[in-house]
Design a protein that fits this description.
about 290 residues; alpha+beta; 8-stranded mixed sheet; 6-stranded mixed sheet
Length: about 290
Amino acid sequence: MRTLAMLPVVVVAGAVAGGALAAENLPPPLDAVVAAERAFAKRCGEVGIRASFLEFFASDAVSFLPDPGNARERLEKRPKEPPPILLAWAPEQAEIASSGELGWTTGPFELTDKSPSPRPPAHGYYFSLWKKQPDGTWKVVLDQGVATPAAPMPAVAQAVGPTGKAGAGAGAGDAAAVRRRDEEFCKSAEAGAGKAYTASLAAEARVHRDGAAPVVGDKAVRAWAKSLAGVMACKPAAAFASGGLGYTYGSWEARATPGGPVAEKGFYTRVWRLDGGWRIAADVASSVK
């Protein structure tokens, strides 16, 4: 998120990211997911990253440092007294499953060092999966961020994906099917990453990569996919689905040619939307040096 992956040494005390939720006019229950995100950002400004993340992360939440692991176990090991570093973030886009049980949010974040000898600010984009809990609250179940150029904090969040019952019906909550679809995509990417993405993208998709601004929107994302050279191997570690929305996460490796040396590798989160088949709604990949 905002982002543990960029904080191997420091622990962050947060600053609030704002915007009036009332101006967003988001359909319920998507408004509840975005409200939870904003409450999370506000809480971070009040009590810091460790306490606020423990409050808003589910017991089985996954974070990337850079490999995926239990977020709460990692947070518990962090010092309770953080240095004077401020963290701010705000949601830019959000989507909710037709079941009302699963959603995602994404947006820019900024780390600002307030110490006497400050380091330059760090910027990025977070991507978080939210799941509705048995008590009705929303908790983060997966959180991955990438470093990007600076971006303005959005005042309102944009809804993407179906807003009604689209995506509901047979197979809408089939996690095994989502995992198989991810495996099929990974297999096709071994022959050509660009063709695999082009054949699998949903409408209104977005792509996050380290070092670059997010690629957003059908035209931009398809142009990005068309420009991809080389091949990619990937392997999902887990999958979940609910109401026509699903996600996978795992590891990836990029090569110029099949069987060639690894040019780049890391970990990914991939959101799948049921729309005449499972298609990629969001693809986040962080690199490991």
